[in-house]
Amino acid sequence: MLISIDGIDGCGKSTQVGLLSGVLGARRIQEISPSRWGKRLRATANPSLAQQLAWFTADRATLAESLEEASGSETVHIVSDRSYLSAVAYQSYDSGLTPSFLEELNRSIVPEYDLQIFLHVPVTTALVRIEARGEAKDWCEHPGLLTWADRVFETWVSMRDFIEQVDGARGIDEVAADVRDAACAASLRRFGRIVF
Asked: Are 58 and 92 in contact (CB under 8 A)?
């Protein structure tokens, strides 16, 4: 199975990706990956929209073969820390690129996900969590962008049957239980049984 957990920065997705991949015995991958494009993204303090589009798309393409192997598979399982949904939400902010265009572009590269989880937290909660890290903020960790991205994620949940929204503002264990339940439900829908 191919599962992703998406959401705005500070939503707790990396924690939940780690927990879910451990429970499922799944391979954990991350966008941004360690590819040359991912390294460029991490090394650039404030990438332009053109750089974001080019480097995120190229980085995602380096993961496509692995994603393809897991998509629809009963034996190969991947849990991804972000997916193309994050490009849909983030790169459409303050740009001429629509969320629909970004989805179409990215879906031409990656296979269908068996489940995408949107871990939702209020932007104010996300910002408190980001501040608590005690690190300098990244280019994508400001209120305007996070508010936009949150709205796009919520819109896509309402439009796509394979995207599940989970309340990420609760305790880690409560969130993890709902994330596991969503993965089991997706497996039952896809294969008629739980495959992990």
From this structure: no
- Alpha helix stretches (DSSP H) within the chain: 13-24, 36-43, 49-70, 84-90, 99-107, 123-132, 143-159, 172-191
- Tell me the residue range of the domain where 125 lies: 2-191
Q: Does residue 105 lie within any of the structural domains?
A: yes
Q: pTM value?
A: 0.95
Other Cβ atoms less than 10 A from the Cβ of 24: the count is: 21
Average pLDDT by stretches of 10, the chain with 196 residues: 98 98 97 95 93 95 97 98 97 95 96 98 97 91 97 97 96 98 97 96
**Count of structural domains, the chain:** 1
Tell whether 196 is covered by a domain: no
